[in-house]
Write a structure and sequence with these properties.
Layout (H helix, E strand, L loop, with lengths): L8 E5 L5 H12 L4 H5 L4 H17 L4 E5 L5 E9 L16 H14 L3 H5 L4 E9 L8 H15 L4 E6 L2 H9 L3 E7 L22 E8 L4
Parallel strand pairs: 4-5
Antiparallel strand pairs: 1-2, 2-3, 3-4, 5-7, 6-7
Helix pairs in contact: 1-3
């Protein structure tokens, strides 16, 4: 069997000019494969709404990273992150005309943090890792792990004391275990009751994804 040729990859900070490429990658590879979004049947329209409300502001924080194939300059992976000191907490449950799927996702985030992120983490100087996505044909090359390593360095340089991630995927949980995150709250998908509908909306999340975890790491000074 011939081994897959490993492509040369470069990494750089993302900015608002990258928004179209980021949105395209999320539509094609993230909402179709990430356990929560795929189970809740997120659509391109939901991503467009998030782009207007959320993604642009995230890129403006200047701590998100993209991985690019050197030969084609194709965006092959992203680690979107935001700065806690700049984040405006959005309570989707109190907003009219917000799609129910965004309300459900917002309710789950609030449930895991037990309220605001700053109160949970004990500081506003945190980096919240929002989206990790890699094109499947580039999987198994260590790109996601490298994105996490670089994200920790960038977060520390930005003055962050902690990093947090809502690890919805089995594979993400493996990565953050490697980086010694504390799992401060873990919920089995099959047992989670959505407060919006009263239903167990994630009971059909496919294997190997069993739990969703809130991971928190104290960022040591270098």
């Amino acid at each position: 069997m011939c081994s897959k040729e490993k492509k040369s990859i470069s990494y750089r900070l993302l900015n608002v000019d990258d928004l179209p490429s980021v949105v395209s990658l999320i539509k094609k590879e993230f909402i179709t494969r990430e356990p929560m979004c795929s189970t809740l049947n997120f659509t391109d329209e939901h991503v467009d709404l998030m782009a207007d409300v959320r993604l642009r502001a995230i890129l403006e924080d200047n701590i998100s990273i993209g991985a690019f194939e050197d030969e084609t300059d194709l965006l092959v992976a992203i680690r979107l992150s935001l700065l806690g000191r700049n984040e405006k907490e959005v309570d989707y449950t109190s907003k009219a005309n917000v799609p129910i799927r965004l309300v459900q996702l917002g309710a789950l985030v609030k449930y895991l943090f037990g309220g605001s992120k700053a109160d949970c983490l004990g500081t506003k100087d945190y980096a919240y890792f929002v989206i990790l996505c890699t094109r499947p044909e580039y999987g198994g090359e260590g790109i996601a792990t490298e994105l996490y390593r670089r994200s920790h360095i960038i977060a520390r340089e930005a003055g962050c004391k902690k990093s947090a991630v809502m690890a919805s995927s089995y594979y993400t949980q493996r990565i953050i275990k490697k980086y010694q995150y504390d799992f401060v709250k873990t919920v089995e998908y099959k047992n989670y009751v959505d407060p919006v509908t009263g239903n167990k909306v994630f009971s059909e999340v496919p294997s190997p994804h069993v739990t969703i975890a809130l991971g928190v790491k104290t960022l040591e000074e270098t």
